[in-house]
Amino acid sequence: MNAPANSFTSAVFPLQTIDVPGGTETVLPGGRHLFPLLPAAFAGVRRIGVIGWGPQGRAQALNLRDSLAGTGIRVTVGLRPGSASAPDARACGFTEDDGTLGDWLDVTAAADLVILLIADAALAACHQQIFAALRPGAAIGLSHGFLLGHLRATGGAFPHGHDVIAVCPKGMGDSVRRLYEQGGHVGGAGINASFAVHADHSGRATDLALGWSVALGSPYTFRTTLAGEYHSDIAGERAILLGAVHGLVEALYGHYRLAGDDPATAYERSCETLTGPIRQTISRSGLTAVRDQLGDRLGPGGRDTFDRAYTAAYGPARELVAEIYDEVADGTELRSVILAERRLADRPMSRISGSPMWAAGRTVRDRRGARVVDIEPFTAGLFVATMMAQVDEFAERGHPWSEIVNESVIEAVDSLLPYMHARDVAYMVDNCSRTARLGARRWGPRFQAAYEQIAFPAAGSPPDGALVAAFTGHPVHQALAAAAKLRPSVDISVPAPQGPRAE
Prior knowledge:
Layout: E1 16-20, E2 23-29, H1 38-41, E3 47-51, H2 55-67, E4 74-79, H3 86-91, E5 101-103, H4 104-110, E6 113-116, H5 120-133, E7 139-142, H6 146-154, E8 164-169, H7 173-182, E9 193-199, H8 205-216, E10 220-223, H9 226-238, H10 243-258, H11 263-285, H12 288-298, H13 300-329, H14 332-344, H15 356-366, H16 377-396, H17 401-422, H18 425-431, H19 434-458, H20 465-472, H21 476-484
Parallel strand pairs: 3-4, 3-6, 4-5, 6-7, 7-8, 9-10
Antiparallel strand pairs: 1-2, 2-10, 8-9
Helix pairs in contact: 2-7, 5-6, 9-13, 9-17, 10-11, 10-16, 10-19, 11-15, 11-17, 12-13, 13-16, 13-19, 14-19, 16-17, 17-18, 17-21, 18-19
């Protein structure tokens, strides 16, 4: 199972190769020691316009401003008239008085690099106005490939004569900012990112994208394509990154309650074990370490429970991931997001945090430290099977290993699950981007039904030895081990919740 070659060159930054199944891939290890190289990477760019002030816009504008301080490159935030985000942007030091905050189209017209970070559906609706306002030769920057998918579906195209690049952090905007700040005093802290060069009219687009990623604080940056990014990102957030996790913990909570657990214990065995010890084990030691630790701690019985759950869940999870991927690739998921934007307009979406298990979660979080929650073998088998189903689907669809392990494993265990542990899964579903929230609400119940109706009954049968052997000997473990060498040196520090963030 070999992924396509994935190498690139840079005239500015020192690159590194990592060993992956079937060959090597090029990556850029980041770090603040590279900041003196940023002026060369941003050659010809005197003004960067960050359009939008959602979580990504806020984080990226602040990180870019801090990293480029003293270079003469100005970072300016562009907002639509009447934006409710303007007060927070001003509080962060972007103001009309010094020219670092302005109307979105005016900022676009003045910028040499225009980074488009407004919501996906809004960008689909407004991109023609932005394109018309671009100055000749200005580069277009994206952090998501959604717009490409929309252009393909509607017969549109990016304007000729402009570099089109993407830098896509593998985590939420809050993570991008918080780990950047941690990186100021702890080496290696940051969120990995992918980059893509969709159009290179200047001949310098690769280094511009790499400089952008370094300035965001990415520990390492790997290459993708703009189409590959939105296929893997949108599919991933509907599967193992969010939707499948939501469906899994809801299904497991009900399963453990029916087995006689009280609400807090059922929450521990479903959600707390997943966002805590299972996540930590994968992050620090890899996927097979979960199964190995069960054998060391519980003996053959714990490993057998894991194996039965794994082989029961892998098939139905793979079917759902494949269905999701098809609907992302053919534009169905993108159209659903645009339709929802029209339907909902400025009305808030209803929240899913009212189900009984989330009240139990507050009890469990309050008693942390007084109880030790260990890996629950049944939960672990189901979760790892779903993760591996996404890994295999992405590999079959031709994604490079760096993208597969980041979108299927690293983003989950190093960025999203820590937030779920600090708050809960429902909080994440209710406070992520509208694109992700719509996907989780659509596909989470599908995963829940698949676990309840297919996986749980099948887990009563002996495990499929061939499927277990395929897992333990899977080439993803080599790719993940190579990527783990560039893992941030600290876990993300999650702040206390302060209520919903604007999108």
